[in-house]
């Protein structure tokens, strides 16, 4: 399993109560499953509306189980932002 950093922004950061935390995961789906297990309340609801960047690249519509994570990589959790 890859050791990755999950970084939370805006509403996700507020719901998690931290700006970032480490996880061991092979895919984005694995990482998000671990996040939901650790934060079963509001963050789980926020994640349903989020988009994700993996090492700076947007995940887009790819299935989370197909998005491989790399050792030392970063998962950015981006809730919808108001304004522009």
UniProtKB/TrEMBL annotation:
Family annotation (SUPFAM superfamilies): MoaD/ThiS (SSF54285)
UniProt xrefs under CDD domains: Ubl_MoaD_like
Organism superkingdom: Bacteria
Name of the protein this chain belongs to: MoaD/ThiS family protein
């Amino acid at each position: 399993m890859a050791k990755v950093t999950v970084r939370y922004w805006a509403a996700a950061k507020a719901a998690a109560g931290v700006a970032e935390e480490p996880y061991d995961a092979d895919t984005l789906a694995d990482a998000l499953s671990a996040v939901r297990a650790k934060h079963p309340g509001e963050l789980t609801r926020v994640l349903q509306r989020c988009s994700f960047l993996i090492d700076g690249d947007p995940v887009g519509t790819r299935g989370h189980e197909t998005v491989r994570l790399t050792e030392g990589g970063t998962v950015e959790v981006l809730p919808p932002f108001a304004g522009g």
